[in-house]
Every structure is written in C-alpha cells, then in structure tokens.
Design brief:
The chain is of the alpha+beta class. It has eight helices and four strands. Strands 1, 2, 3 and 4 form a four-stranded antiparallel sheet that branches. Strand 2 and strand 3 (145-157) form a beta hairpin. The longest helix is centred in the middle third of the chain and has 20 residues, at 81-100. The termini are close together.
C-alpha cells in the first residue's frame, strides 16, 4: 500500500463521490428482494457500482435492494448512475484545480491543462480497476442477523509515487514553468503505463434472517481504500 499519500487526500477524494451514492440506514423489516443473489454476487454488484461506476451493475443493485429500501421507508434507489457519471465528469477540472493550486499563482494557467490531465488519468485508473469477489466465508448469525464476509481483490495501477504526494513534491522542487508542466505530464503518464498491483480486502454483507437483501449500508468505507493505491 502506498504510504506516501496523505490521509487527508484519501478522505477528500472519497468525499467527492459520497453524494452520488445514497447510503441507506439499517432497517428491521423488509420485503424479500425481487431476485435472490448469493453474497459473492451482491459484493460484485457493490464493487462494480462504487469502484467502476458500471451502468448495468448500478441498475441491478438498485433493483435488488429496492424492496428492502422501500420497506424501510428509504429512497428507492441506492445509487444514481447519472450522479456517478456527473462526478466523474467534474473530477478532472475540480481535482486539477487542487493540483494547480500547489504551484505558484503565476504558474496556475500554464500548469492547469497538465494538472487536469493527471486528474483525468487518476479517475480513469480508479474506474478501470479490475475487481472480483473471490469467496464468501460461511454465514454467521448474531442477534438474528446473518453476515457473510466476502473476500475480493482488485488489480490496481502501481505508480512509483501516488499522485498527491508526487504533485506536492514537484511543486516544492522549485521547477520552472516548463519543467513543472513536464513533471505533471510524466506523473499523468505513469497512470497509463505502470504495472498493476493486487489489492485484497474483505467486504461484509448482512441481512435479517432470510427476509431481505444482502446489503452493506456503509459499503463506501471499504471501497474508498482504493484511493490509498492511487
């Protein structure tokens, strides 16, 4: 795991996407889901929704969770595909500005295109991570709740230095305008040319007995760890 990236940057990038995913609160009673899925299948839908912003997975996860959410008097949709794509579209400009602001004010206009390119490559690397749930541990039961721990792994780009730390180092190097631009372009290129690394983690899904959908109301907390690799 890249330790060079500051926790504040991980939290910032995670917050960018929070508004696009409607995080549900736990419920007690719920209708049975329209389609029966096993925990590994559900985990894969969460992965492809939150990490990859895959349209088909968003639709399928929304349909699967909808009866449970409605029974708990929550909004029908867990995630908004249009909202996710909107945040993706805004990411290069908004994050590019954060990167450009690391440099002296006189350089901002000159380095902004390279900063936005870097941000675009970062979000493309995140959305393009190849992930798969691999196995589910036996279901455990506690206080009437069934829980299954699902192991998964993702192939994530392995850059020499994570974008936030790399940009900070470059900004502090005293580089001239053309050197700074070239440096940002080099960092951006590392997100398309570097080898992959494997991120392994465990994602838990739960339900009350057999009466509702397998779910994780705080799924983003697990999957936001991917920013520590970027």
């Amino acid at each position: 795991m890249h330790q060079t990236q500051q926790t504040s940057h991980t939290a910032l990038m995670a917050t960018v996407f929070a508004a696009a995913v409607a995080m549900a609160q736990p419920t007690i009673a719920a209708e049975a889901p329209a389609v029966e899925l096993v925990p590994v299948d559900v985990a894969n839908l969460y992965i492809k929704t939150i990490i990859n912003h895959d349209e088909a997975s968003v639709a399928k996860l929304n349909a699967y969770l909808r009866p449970t959410r409605l029974a708990g008097q929550q909004s029908a949709e867990y995630a908004s595909y249009s909202g996710l794509k909107e945040t993706d579209a805004k990411f290069p400009k908004e994050t590019g500005k954060l990167i450009a602001d690391l440099f002296p004010a006189a350089m901002h206009a000159a380095v902004t295109p390279a900063a936005e390119l870097l941000a675009a490559n970062v979000i493309a690397a995140k959305n393009g991570a190849v992930c798969q749930a691999t196995k589910a541990d036996p279901v455990t039961v506690e206080n009437g709740m069934q829980t299954a721990a699902v192991s998964f792994e993702c192939q994530v780009v392995k850059v020499p230095v994570a974008w936030a730390a790399a940009a900070q180092q470059l900004a502090k190097s005293g580089c001239k305008v053309e050197q700074c631009k070239a440096g940002l372009q080099k960092i951006a290129a590392s997100y398309t040319s570097s080898p992959k690394q494997t991120w392994r983690a465990v994602f838990a899904v739960s339900r009350e007995k057999n009466s509702e959908a397998w779910r994780n109301d705080f799924a983003r907390e697990t999957f936001d760890e991917i920013w520590e690799y970027l």
